[in-house]
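Re: the request from the purification team.
They wanted to know what the chain is likely to look like in 3D before they choose a buffer screen. I agreed to run a prediction and write the result into the notebook, where they can find it.
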Amino acid sequence: MTDARRPVVFIHGLWLHATSWQPWVDLFEKAGYAAVAPGWPGIADTVEGARANPDDIADNGIDDVVDHYLALFADLPRKPILVGHSFGGMIAEKLLGLDAAEAAVAIDAAQIKGVLPLPLSSLRATLPVFKNPANKHHAVSLTKEQFRYSFGNAVSQEESDQLFDRWTIPAPGKPLFEAAAANFSLHSPAKVDTDNQDRGPLLLITGAQDRTVPEVITRSTLRQYRHSNAVTELLEFADRGHSLVIDSGWEEVATTSLDWLAKQGLGPQV
C-alpha cells in the first residue's frame, strides 16, 4: 500500500550531525508526516563515527551535497518538503529552486549568491576555516569556545557546552569557500534560482541573536526572491541564536514550521 503521508527531509548544516534532527523527526512523524534526516555524503551514521573519520567528508562542496540529496529523493514516492538549517537551509533553497521539493523551510540559511552583507560576526564565526586556505580541501572542527561564539551565544554556557559535546562533528571547508566567492563567480554553486515562479512556498526563519548568519543576511536573502510571485515569507525569533534548531527552544521553532506548512495547505496527508 502506498504511503499517503507527505515526506519531509531534514538537512543539517556544517558542524552538526544529522541525528541532531531526531527530535524534529519524532515531532513531524507524530504530526503525520513521513520524516527522515539523512546526512551529507561521506558522514558516518553516528557522531562518534563522524568525529573519527573527518577525511570522509573533506572536499565535499555545495554541488556534491545537492546531488547527494537529489539521488535520495529518487527513492521517495513524491517530492519532499525540506527543512534545512544553516548550510542545510541554503541547500534546501537550491533544491526548491530546482523544483525538486514541494516546499522548504530554511532556518538561519547560509548566504546565497547575490547576498552582499558580510557582518563581522559572520567573519569571526567562520575564521576557523578561513584562517588557512588549505582548509578548502579539509574538514575542520570547532573548539568548545568557537561553538559558544557561533552557535551557543543565546543559551547558557552550560547548555552550549552540552550541545557541543552531543552533536558537533568536523565540517568540510569547501562550501564556505564557495559561498564566500559566490558573487565573483558567474556559475557559483551557491547560486539559487530565486526567480522561479512555479516553485513551492518558502519560509525563511532567522534568529535575531545569530552571529553566524545574522538577521541582515536573511533579510537580504528575502530580497533576492523579489522577482518571483511564489510564496516567500520571513519569520524572526528575536531571542534566538544559531543553535535554535537543537537547543532547549527547538520545539517552538519546529511547531511554528508545522503551523506554517498547514497554512500553505501542506499538511501530512497528501
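For the purification team: The two ends are 14 Å apart (CA to CA).
Please add any questions underneath this entry.
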